[in-house]
Design brief:
- The protein is globular and about 60 Å long.
- Strands 2-1-3 form a 3-stranded antiparallel β-sheet, with helices on one face.
- The protein has one domain.
- α2 crosses α4.
- It is mainly α.
- A hairpin with a 6-residue loop joins β1 and β2.
- The longest helix has 29 residues.
- The chain is 76% helix and 3% strand.
């Protein structure tokens, strides 16, 4: 699989993902609760995904697959969707969308750091053997450039607000950064190519529903029911980010699921969310332009993404493929 196809798909996914950051900021600005921003997205996703999977006649194979390992589906869906999106919505109450999108790029580094949690089967002279994946240090070095850009963006923001508010807008994003790639990769491992992107997104959404229902009950008892405006915006997020972007991103990662280097390059495309989210907030919310310091950080993040992807392309065309199967569960 040539790396450019999944990278292009990843860029389109980043565009639709950016709606999350813009509309979450919009909902918070109009008094909407982060609880409903999080829960409604996944609840609204269900009918759209069910319709798509039914139209493709793939619902029964999905349900059969989920029955094989219900506990694993519940666990990794909770991590990949619940611990990913709830913290992002919570952080929206303390930071602008573009800054959260910038901090979110640490997921690129997180994706490299979690590699040892997986195993891959390789060819050896004595036959196929399982080998623990290694952290791709060369790719990680390029990812550090992205981290530097995030730090530059955050410096000025941290100077203007209290430490408590800064941490409430930053630490939840860090949780999401590790939860999303871990949950996504573990589900790819569990499915082992037997489900397409639509089935996997629907399966994870269904498996995460118990968490969203519990969060909804908490929301009703604390902040009341959501407004019509927040419900409509959550519906837009569900379609753009929850259905379109997630399916595109899962499709891109599925294409390169057997190569951690290519997978890291695809995940790096999500750094474009910073520019997309910034443009959206300027156009829709009329926010002020970032300061010169923040622009430097944004440019550094983008530069890191480009270098990271180019390096991965070179490695993928110069190193023979050794992995012949999906990672084995650790």
């Amino acid at each position: 699989m040539h790396i450019m196809k999944p990278i292009v798909i990843g860029i389109f996914a980043a565009f639709f993902f950016a709606f999350t950051f813009v509309l979450n900021a919009s909902m918070d600005a109009t008094g909407g609760s982060w609880i409903w921003s999080a829960a409604l997205r996944y609840i609204f996703m269900v009918p759209f995904l069910v319709a798509i999977v039914l139209a493709r006649r793939n619902l029964k194979p999905l349900l059969k697959e989920m029955k094989k390992a219900p506990q694993a589906w519940l666990l990794w869906s909770f991590i990949g969707f619940g611990l990913f999106y709830m913290p992002l919505c919570f952080a929206a109450a303390y930071s602008p969308g573009w800054l959260i999108a910038g901090s979110w790029q640490i997921t690129i580094i997180a994706g490299s750091l979690i590699a040892p949690f997986f195993f891959a089967r390789i060819h050896t002279s004595s036959g196929p053997q399982w080998r623990r994946e290694k952290i791709p240090y060369k790719g990680l070095m390029f990812s550090i450039i992205i981290l530097l850009g995030v730090i530059i963006m955050q410096v000025e923001s941290a100077q203007k607000i209290s430490l408590e508010v800064f941490l409430l807008g930053f630490l939840p994003v860090m949780v999401a950064c590790f939860a999303y790639p871990l949950g996504n990769r573990k589900m790819m491992e569990l499915c082992d190519g037997r489900l397409d992107a639509y089935q996997r997104v629907l399966g994870m959404t269904l498996a995460s529903l118990p968490f969203w229902f519990i969060l909804s009950i908490y929301g009703v008892s604390t902040v009341g029911v959501p407004s019509i405006s927040q419900s409509l915006q959550s519906l837009i997020v569900a379609i753009s980010s929850g259905v379109i972007a997630t399916v595109l991103f899962f499709k891109a990662t599925d294409l390169v699921r057997k190569d951690m280097k290519k997978l890291a390059a695809v995940e790096a495309t999500q750094s474009l969310e910073v520019l997309f989210a910034l443009a959206g907030e300027i156009i829709i919310l009329s926010i002020a332009l970032p300061s010169p310091t923040s622009w430097i950080g944004i440019i550094v993040v983008m530069l890191g993404m480009i270098i990271h992807s180019q390096a991965s392309i070179k490695r993928s065309t110069s190193i023979p493929e050794k992995i012949i199967d999906n990672p084995k569960s650790s």
